[in-house]
Amino acid sequence: MKPLLTRPGSEATIPSGTAETAVPHTRTRPPISVQAIRLLLIAAIATVIATWLWAFQGVQAYAWPGVDNDLAARGLAYLAILGPAVPVNLLAAIRLARSGRRARLYLAAAAALAVVQTVLLLTPSAMPSADTMSDGSNNVGIRHLATVGPLLFAGLWLATTSKARAWLSLDPSPRRTYFIPEAAVCSIALAGALLLGTEVRQWANAYTEPLPPGGEYAEAGTWAALEQAVTETTDAIPEFAGFTTRTLDVVSCEYATPTGNTTYRYELTYELRETASAPIATRWAQGDFTLTYDGDTLAGNRRITAERDFPVIENAAYPTATGIHAIALAYTEAGPPTLHLESPCVERTTAPTECILPQGDPATDTINGVTCRN
Question: Which residues cross the membrane (predicted)?
Answer without folding.
Answer: 36-55, 75-93, 105-122, 142-159
